[in-house]
Amino acid sequence: MTDVPTGFRRSPADYGLRQRARRNPVQVRPAGATVMRAVRLVDTDVHSSMTRAMMIERASPRWRRHFERFGLRTPPITEFYPRARNAGMRADSWPDRPGSIPGSDRDLLVRQLLDEYDIDYAILNTLGLQDHNEVPAFAAELSRIVNDWVAEEWLAHDDRLLSAINVPHEYPDLAAREIERRRGDRRWVQVLLPSSAHDMLGSSRYWPIYEAAAACGLPVAIHTGGFGTHTGTGWPSYYLEEHVSYALVMQQQLQSLVCEGVFETFPDLKVVLTEGGATWTAAVRWALDGAWSMLGEEVPHLGRSPSEYIRDQVWFTTQPLEEPGDPRQFLQAIAHGQLADRLVFATDYPHWDFDSPSQSLPRELSKETRAAILAGNACDLYGLPREREVPAP
Fold first, then answer.
1. What's the CATH code of the domain at 141?
2. By CB count within 10 A, which of 2, 52, 75, 274 is most buried?
3. d(C-alpha 206, C-alpha 211), whole Å
4. CB-neighbour burial class of residue 13 (10 A; exposed 0-12, middle 13-18, buried 19+)
């Protein structure tokens, strides 16, 4: 019998391992294999942006000449006064290509946001048209340009990307037509409106937009922006004032939607108040209910208390979220506002006050509430799947 070197002798344990390996062979996944994974992170406010040159390039001949000769009636929101340095953007979000702006480069956005934080879905809110007041046909053309660009340059390249529909909101019939044009394409998950317009958003002139959105099963996202992003007369002296005032404008619009009867008329309508804070909702609900109990006969068209409409039909994004020094007070605000299932996560990329998914929510939140805010609430709101196919590890 040939002697076997000690280092090569098999022990009884080796034979046991071989037998178990035969019964449970190692699974080697082929290249390109995928697995199903629970959706863990949905970003509901990401800003893609078109430069004026991009818009001109996509315009029809009639409106290209108009655009080149007369331009737009209002400057970009980043040029409004007051404004933080760097146009209010993250310093690292500016693309290297000359003439580009933050949010115009898909590859950079995907790398800095989706890949960096392993985001399952990101909803694009392209804000370039919120403060425009063009003639009807040109306004409709601009909405078509932006939506086609988003579809062709963004949605077609990454199934993690979803989008809001840009509409010519001051011409509600044309806005409804643009909503219908995107009907049935599940990549479009909401309709985008600014937080300030010519009239209060509860005005019946905007109801065709709400009717079309509800008929298509699309929430309406009201995003900070538009003609008056602050309250009162004149302009504030400091950007600090303007930034805090966003929440005040959003509160006014919420009251308008409730009191004008938008929610009563469109019970299937869902509204997402985006980039306007959230913890103030408890105080607004208390104030509305208190006034309604005494003045309800002035608004006989309301069949329920104001707080019931807000509870059933309104959602809020987390960015920017008011955070007290004591985290326990934040938890109390969430409870008082009944927000645990109505808050949806947002980073506000590429703005300067970007919220990182890993740092933006207080550690004191329960595991269940944190998971709901980061993904579950948005999945319920937008009808997103709870699982997603991802590359196998």
1. 3.20.20.140
2. 274
3. 9
4. exposed
- The three-state secondary structure class of 166 is strand
The predicted-structure confidence for 237-260, as pLDDT tens digits, reads as follows 888 888 888 999 999 999 999 999
For residue 23, tell me if it sits in a domain. no
Q: What angle do CA 27, 32, 34 make, to 5 degrees?
A: 65
Instruction: Please state the rounded mean pLDDT for residues 294-309.
Output: 98
3 state DSSP class of 34: strand
- Please write the tens of the pLDDT for every residue from 160-202: 999 999 999 999 999 999 999 999 999 999 999 999 999 999 9
**Three-state DSSP class for residue 100:** coil
Report d(CA 100, CA 111) in Å as an integer. Answer: 17
DSSP class of residue 77 equals G
| First vs last C-alpha separation in the chain | 47
Strand segments, DSSP code E, in 234-295 are 271-274
In a domain, 5, yes or no: no
- State how far the Cα of 371 lies from the Cα of 260, in Å rounded to an integer: 35
In a domain, 2, yes or no: no
Tokens 């980039």: give the residue: 275
Question: What's the pLDDT at 6?
Answer: 45
Please choose, from the candidates 120, 138, 142, 112, the residue with its C-alpha nearest in 3D space to the C-alpha of residue 129. Answer: 142
Residue 368, classified by CB atoms within 10 Å of its CB into exposed (0-12), middle (13-18) or buried (19+), is exposed
- Domain count of the chain? 1
Residue 156, beta-bridge partner list: none
Give pTM, 2 decimals. 0.91
Least confident of 10-24, 146-160, 326-340: 10-24
What are 12-55's pLDDT values in tens digits? 444 454 454 455 554 555 668 999 999 999 999 999 999 999 99
Residues 6+ apart with CB under 8 A from 44: 123, 221, 272, 274, 317, 344, 345, 346, 378
Question: What's the pLDDT score for residue 119?
Answer: 98
The CA distance from 146 to 127, in Å, is 10
Residue-range definition of the domain harbouring residue 145: 32-391
Q: Name residue 224's amino acid.
A: T
Q: How far apart are CA 242 and CA 83, in angstroms?
A: 9
- 335 is a domain residue: yes
Closest C-alpha to 286, from 329, 336, 324, 248: 336
The two tokens of residue 283 are 């105080």
In which region does residue 103 sit, left (phi positive, over 0), alpha (psi from -120 to 50) or beta (all else)? left
Q: What is the pLDDT of residue 27?
A: 54
